[in-house]
Design goal:
Elements: H1 9-16, H2 20-34, E1 50-53, E2 56-59
Antiparallel strand pairs: 1-2
Length: 61
């Protein structure tokens, strides 16, 4: 996965000489295994400190 830090999916595929689709699938599986959504069991509220409205940036403090 170190190649992805310096290259696009297409660049990695070209570098390894395999299909872009294969690289995309490998990367998708990697991301699912390492970055699955966390469990929200027991979470009662979630706070948001910034959001955008009609291209205007609003910071709430």
């Amino acid at each position: 996965m170190d190649l992805f830090r310096a290259m696009t999916l297409k660049d990695v595929a070209n570098h390894l000489g395999i299909s872009w689709d294969v690289i995309k699938e490998i990367h998708s599986v990697y991301l699912q295994c390492h970055y699955n959504p966390p469990s929200l069991k027991g979470v009662e509220s979630i706070g948001i400190d910034e959001f955008a409205v009609k291209s205007l940036f609003i910071a709430i403090k």
